[in-house]
Amino acid sequence: MPRLILGLTLILFCGAVAAQQPGPMSAAKPVDKPATPKTAAKKPPPKPKGPPARELFGSATAPAPLAARSIGGYAKGCLAGGVSLPINGPDWQVMRLSRNRNWGNPRLLDYLERLASDARALDGWPGLLIGDMSQPRGGPMLTGHTSHQIGLDADVWLTPMPDRILTPQEREDMVAVSMLKDPFNVDPEIFTLEQVKLIRRAASYPQVARIFVHPAIKKALCQMAPQVGKDTSWLGKVRPWWNHHYHFHIRLTCPPDADGCENQKPANGDNGCGQELTNWYAMLKKSAIEAAKQPVPGSKPWVGKPPLTMAQLPKECGTVLTAGGFEPPPQGEDGTVMPASALQALETKDAGPPIPILTAAQLQALIGGGTDPAGMPLPDRNPLR
User: Which of 128, 61, 95 is nearest to 349 (CA)?
Assistant: First the structure.
């Protein structure tokens, strides 16, 4: 009986309409609001009703037995009828199997299988190492992503696949290779024309909405694209985003006539190699400076947005969560579903290394706007035009 009550309660909480994830570099228009008197007391934020949605969807180990359907937006939605990508294919291998994130809309699986085949046959890429796709029922993830919620996103490592089948333990322990030499530039010994061809191939299909890469990789693509073909129109789909320095993130459009699936706003039509990239490098500079600074004693750690609740997801996600009689684990005394040990274990399985940190000399040169003694090109000395 308690479990039945919990299931009904979850469905009642699922009333909000999903909002679409904003695209890179998009900015919300300011909204005029009446001034709040200084004497007015600020209301504390409302406490979430029930456990975070990420814990409920993260506890589901099997897909919802429903017709395949992506529901909501990339960062506020869920996945019905999810299909798992086989962990071994003729041209791919799935990594981090313990995460159970190799699920997606059939549209995504068809795309990945074709990309893997074409990249090997047409570009000589030895095979894809595939990272996170979605959870069995989509929804918010316990760790690592804001998007990947509707089965139309996938991460692909920029590390070539070995010429053998990796063991399950190797798939847990193997670390992806960062393409960066420093916070602003790729390593030309690692990021070569082979990676450029792979990203070009990934962006070439009509069902692709976006490819996300680190700004330094985007800069390298802008410079190297003419070396792999005269047609560089594919660059318009490839956009910078934080932390994508050892993999690239593929995002597909919703299937045709998909009811309730929310597409991201199309790219603005340019190749992204002009002012947008310049703006990203300005942000990258600030980020590199902050990362290299010593932490101030007593400073508070950064706290992100509160996790989504079921009420913030599309109403149908309540049905997806409980389909087939699935019952999430009961809440603990602290209001959570997933034990802290499970969350901690997932957090240790990041696929790649951290972003390189500036040395003290590089930091001083960057702050002073001078020339780095190590010869590192600095963004304020190398405008990206």
Answer: 95
Amino acid at 117: S
Alpha carbons 193 and 188: distance in angstroms, whole number: 9
d(CA 38, CA 23): 35
| pLDDT tens, position by position, 65-124 | 999 999 999 999 999 999 999 999 999 999 999 999 999 999 999 999 999 999 999 999
Instruction: State the Rg of the chain over Cα.
Output: 22
Selection from 205, 263, 311 nearest residue 70 by Cα: 263
pTM of the model: 0.82
**Residue 79 φ then ψ, to 5°:** -135, 120
Q: Which amino acid is at 294?
A: Q
69, containing H or E segment: strand 69-73
How far, rounded to the nearest angstrom, does the alpha carbon of residue 3 sit from its chain's CA centroid?
A: 33
Domains of the chain: 57-272 (3.30.1380.10)
Evaluate whether 359 touches 369 at the Cβ level (below 8 Å). Answer: no
From the CB of residue 169, how many other CB atoms can be counted at a distance below 10 Å? 9
| Per-residue pLDDT tens over the stretch 202-233 | 999 999 999 999 999 999 999 999 999 999 99
The counts of H helices and E strands in the chain are 10, 13
